[in-house]
Description:
Helix content is about 25%, strand content about 20%. With about 300 residues, it is α+β, with helices and mostly antiparallel strands.
Amino acid sequence: MPKLEVLDPDAPIKDLMKVLRRDGAFILKDAASRQDIADTWQELKPYVEATETGSDAFTGFKTTRTGALVARSAGSRKLILDETLHQMCVEFLHPNCARHQLHLGQVIRIMPGQPRQAIHKDRWAWGKHLTGVEPQLNTIWAVTEFTRENGATQVVPGSMDWADDHNFSEDEIAYAEMQPGSVLVYTGSVFHGGGENATQSDRIGINITYTLGWLRQEENQYLSCPPEIAKHLEPQLQKLIGYTMGSYALGYYTPPLEAGAGPGIVGPEYALSEGTREDGMQGAGLLGDADLLKDSFS
């Protein structure tokens, strides 16, 4: 049976990327303190306990998935902004995009009696026709201990280029066994799935994933983290949830104008002087991120 490589979060990024590109997954040991994980769990626990279980075999009849982490938990925001992971996003995603964004944030609780999940690729969220690029980088932070017995994530190392209909054997599957504070890092193309929980205790992990800035996010961050909360976030997190442009001309908006005023387009970064824009439109031109947020929340 294969094993996932366990690495130190202080390891050079080049070493982390070498393993990621080879295996599609690895574990960062003790990437967060147990106290930070415990505090984050206390923030999220009431929401998790109020969440209904899945409605089909894939989401899990004895599994809950609780989202809106940015809006609900300061500790989750800290995990989302983990510097090592963002350096990896730059190495892994930025060759195909100028920026990355938060794809989703959720607590996955696998309860006793939950069978193993079907092995799959997360990149299938966009269908099976997105080819030629790696669209996402994923993580699952251990809140409880992850063991093979309680539902540790199944991962098939090196399976990134395998056929979508591959028939898996047990000797191809590794299990992401780890302690609270460690994190499984894996790509959108590696085969994986939740494990079977044959114990009497919950297996709880925080699933945070990042994607190319020009792709549609799986979790709608504008609705799960409403403007009255988003306006108080630090700028880096505001950008991650979508308050910036995904690429040139992707994500601009036209604010309401007084009657008789000319058209204008507002978007981040690509600043142009007032007056005639390069596309021939008249108006304010393109403004910076701070202006975008200011206008959005005024």
